[in-house]
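Section 5: illustrative case.
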C-alpha cells in the first residue's frame, strides 16, 4: 500500500506554518518595546535557576549512587562489620525497624534500653502478639537481649505478680497495720 505524497506534504506545510506562527508570537512577546526586556530577564533568570538546581540534583544523586555502590561492594567483600550500639542510638534503631510493621501497636508499647538490652513494657491483645514483638526485637542488629514485661490486657505485668501476691497474703492475715511504725529518730530526740 503506497502513501499519498500530497497528504504527507500537506501535513508538513501546516506544521511549518504553525512553527513560524509560534516563533512570531514568541518574538513579539519577548521583544515587546514596553515589557519585553523584563520578560527576557525573567526567562534568563528562570533558565539559570533550572540549570543550577538541576546540576546540583544530578551531582547529589551521582554522589549518593557512587557511595552506595562502593559500600555495597565493600560489604559483599568483607561482610557487614558488627557495630556495638547502645543507648539512644539502639532505641532509635529498634523503634524505626519495629514500628514499620503496621500490625504492631505503636501507642501500646513502651521501649527502654539498658546498655544493649531492650526492655519492653505494655499491654497487647494476645500471647501471639507478645511473642511476635519479642522475636522482632531480638532480630534487630545490636540487640543483645530482651527483657519483656509485656502482658495481655486485663492481666498484671510479670514484674508485678509477686507484689500482688504479697498484698493479697497481707490482706488474708488482717491487712496492713493501722498505725505506721514509730520513727526511731524522733523517739530518740525526745529523750
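Designed sequence:
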Amino acid at each position: 500500500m503506497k502513501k499519498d505524497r500530497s497528504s504527507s506534504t500537506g501535513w508538513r506545510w501546516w506544521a511549518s506554518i504553525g512553527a513560524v506562527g509560534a516563533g512570531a508570537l514568541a518574538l513579539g512577546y519577548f521583544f515587546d518595546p514596553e515589557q519585553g526586556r523584563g520578560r527576557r530577564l525573567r526567562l534568563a533568570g528562570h533558565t539559570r535557576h533550572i540549570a543550577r538546581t538541576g546540576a546540583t540534583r544530578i551531582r547529589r544523586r551521582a554522589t549518593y549512587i557512587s557511595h552506595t555502590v562502593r559500600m555495597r561492594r565493600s560489604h559483599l567483600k568483607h561482610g557487614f562489620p558488627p557495630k556495638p550500639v547502645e543507648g539512644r542510638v539502639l532505641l532509635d534503631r529498634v523503634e524505626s525497624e519495629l514500628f514499620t510493621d503496621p500490625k504492631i501497636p505503636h501507642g501500646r508499647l513502651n521501649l527502654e534500653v539498658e546498655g544493649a538490652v531492650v526492655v519492653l513494657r505494655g499491654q497487647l491483645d494476645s500471647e501471639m502478639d507478645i511473642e511476635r514483638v519479642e522475636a522482632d526485637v531480638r532480630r534487630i542488629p545490636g540487640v543483645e537481649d530482651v527483657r519483656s514485661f509485656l502482658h495481655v490486657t486485663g492481666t498484671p505485668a510479670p514484674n508485678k505478680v509477686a507484689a500482688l501476691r504479697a498484698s493479697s497474703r497481707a490482706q488474708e492475715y488482717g491487712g496492713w497495720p493501722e498505725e505506721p511504725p514509730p520513727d526511731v529518730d524522733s523517739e530518740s530526740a525526745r529523750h
